[in-house]
């Protein structure tokens, strides 16, 4: 796929093979984020694990100190008092069978995160084929299957992000916006990297962080020196 003129111009501003310290990587990415909208900054980490094995999965969530800069729409599937808790915490949608039916029959996905109580998972599980590919299936490891609905909603609204390995053993996660200050981005990235370190499977052998890069929506990736992580 051919890249645009701005992308090609950005490539020429630095050595793509260079390994940057974190502060220098953040500065370089912000410098290249010149689109006429507030570009999203993403971290991409290739880990020394094999996602085909159950004991080498890396999945979880972390609340970024400065949020993601994105507005997140939250759907809560629960019963009784938990619906009131969801409303008070700021959930955008909350209910029971009516939303499950809407997803099934109308292919409705006007939400970014789905949080459910454990007693709803029997019904939610039937939606696995449509929720799974979109990364919307609730999971206890990411804190989206919980009885503490209020905390889960507030954390998500405050900037909680989920992370999980893809088939190539890479984590792709949002860490902020180009409009964030460098210190804000470094704090968010530091929190994300610390979470990944803590999530390292006991079965993982050898170098854990194989490669880590930072990129904005419209810019090429900048490689971070993993020896300094």
Automatic annotation (TrEMBL):
Belongs to the universal ribosomal protein uL1 family. Keywords: Repressor, Ribonucleoprotein, Ribosomal protein, RNA-binding, rRNA-binding, Translation regulation, tRNA-binding. It comes from the Bacteria. It holds the Pfam family Ribosomal_L1. One of its GO terms (molecular function) is structural constituent of ribosome. The gene is rplA. One of its GO terms (biological process) is translation. This is Large ribosomal subunit protein uL1. GO terms for cellular component: large ribosomal subunit. HAMAP family: Ribosomal_uL1_B (MF_01318_B). Protein L1 is also a translational repressor protein, it controls the translation of the L11 operon by binding to its mRNA. PROSITE patterns: RIBOSOMAL_L1. The keyword Chaperone does not apply. Part of the 50S ribosomal subunit.
């Amino acid at each position: 796929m051919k890249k645009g003129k701005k992308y090609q111009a950005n490539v020429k501003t630095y050595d793509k093979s260079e390994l940057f310290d974190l502060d220098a990587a953040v500065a370089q990415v912000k410098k290249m984020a010149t689109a006429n909208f507030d570009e999203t900054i993403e971290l991409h980490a290739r880990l020394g694990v094999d996602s085909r094995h159950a004991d080498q999965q890396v999945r979880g969530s972390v609340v970024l100190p400065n949020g993601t800069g994105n507005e997140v729409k939250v759907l809560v599937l629960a019963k009784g008092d938990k619906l009131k808790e969801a409303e008070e915490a700021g959930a955008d949608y909350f209910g029971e069978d009516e939303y499950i039916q809407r997803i099934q029959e109308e292919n409705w996905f006007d939400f970014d995160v789905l949080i459910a109580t454990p007693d709803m998972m029997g019904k939610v599980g039937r939606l696995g084929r449509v929720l799974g590919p979109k990364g919307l299936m609730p999971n206890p490891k990411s804190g989206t299957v919980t009885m503490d609905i209020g905390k889960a909603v507030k954390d998500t609204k405050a900037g909680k992000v989920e992370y999980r390995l893809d088939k190539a053993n890479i984590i792709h996660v949002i860490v902020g916006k180009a409009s964030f200050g460098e210190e804000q981005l470094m704090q968010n990235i530091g929190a994300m990297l610390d979470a990944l370190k803590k999530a390292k499977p006991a079965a993982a052998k050898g170098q854990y962080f194989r490669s880590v890069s930072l990129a904005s929506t419209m810019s090429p990736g900048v490689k971070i020196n993993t020896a300094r992580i």
